[in-house]
């Protein structure tokens, strides 16, 4: 894919370089096949090998469980800061896209029932 064909103002994170490749691992469990935990471990080993060899890769949801440091690496420091700022500005209660678990849900500011009397 060509890097120049993507709009830089979107939140998509792309690897560095003008040309990049999409590789999708579509794993499934079948009777008598490897267990889910084994497949997840294999996926983790593939990502570890990419990191160890210095490949700039992007893994999409729900791959990141290490918190803000992993998301910052995924987006790049400047883009991550922009993403966080936009999320705080346009979705302060984190009600949009909760399934990705990028941002924890903020409790809604509700008045106490006793204060309404």
List the helices and strands and how they pair.
Elements: H1 36-52, H2 68-75, H3 77-90
Give your account of this protein's structure.
The protein has 117 residues and is mainly alpha-helical. The chain folds into two domains: 1-59, no CATH class; 67-104. Helices cover 33% and strands 0% of the residues. It is built from three helices and no strands. It has helices spanning 36-52, 68-75, 77-90. Helix 2 crosses helix 3. The longest helix is centred in the middle third of the chain and has 17 residues, at 36-52. The protein is globular, with a radius of gyration of 19 Å. The chain starts with 35 loop residues before the first helix and ends in a 27-residue tail after the last helix. The mean pLDDT is 80.
Question: What distinguishing features does this structure have?
Answer:
single chain, mainly alpha, 117 residues, globular, 33% helix, 2 domains
Note poorly predicted spans: none
Name the beta content range: under 5%
**What's the helix count?**
3
Name the overall outline: globular
Number of domains: 2
If you average the pLDDT, what whole number results? 80
Number of strands: 0
Give me a quick take on this structure.
By secondary structure, this protein is an all-alpha fold.
